[in-house]
Amino acid sequence: MKIQDLKTPALILDYDILEENIKRMQQKADENNVKLRPHIKTHKCTEIARLQVKSGAIGITSSTIQEVYSFAHAGFSDITWAFPFNPAYLEEVFSILKKINLGLLIDSIEAFEIIENKSKSTGIKPAIWLEIDSGQHRSGIDFTSKNAQELANRILKSKHINFVGLLTHAGHAYNAQSVEEVKKIAFEEQEIILNAKEILFNGLPINASIGSTPTISLADQIKNIDEIRPGNYVFYDYSQVLLGSCKVEDCALSVLSTIVSINKQANRLIIDAGALSLSKDTGPPQFKNYSSYGMIHTDLFSKNINQNLRITNLTQEHGIIACSDESSVIERYKYGDKVRILMNHSCLTTSLFDFYYVVSGDKVIDRWEILRGRNLSK
Question: Which residues pair with 14 in a beta bridge?
Answer without folding.
Answer: 359
